[in-house]
Design goal:
It contains one helix and four strands. By secondary structure, it is of the alpha+beta class. The strands form two sheets. It has a two-stranded antiparallel sheet. A two-stranded antiparallel sheet has the order 3-4. A hairpin with a 5-residue loop joins strand 3 and strand 4. The longest helix is centred in the last third of the chain and has 10 residues. It is elongated and about 40 Å long. This is Zinc ribbon domain-containing protein.
Amino acid sequence: MDFDWPTYFECAACGAEFPANKVQYDDLGYPECPDCEARTGPLASLEAVDAVEHGIAE
């Protein structure tokens, strides 16, 4: 008997958890949170810094 373990995505920014098939990916293949729209990947930390400097993020 085969058993498929479900795969989940957990957002590092907001902590939301979604089934992997509900997550969209950007042009570089990095996941984007369906809840808060935060992106992951090498440039995600730079985007967060820019958002804070512009008063967008808390």
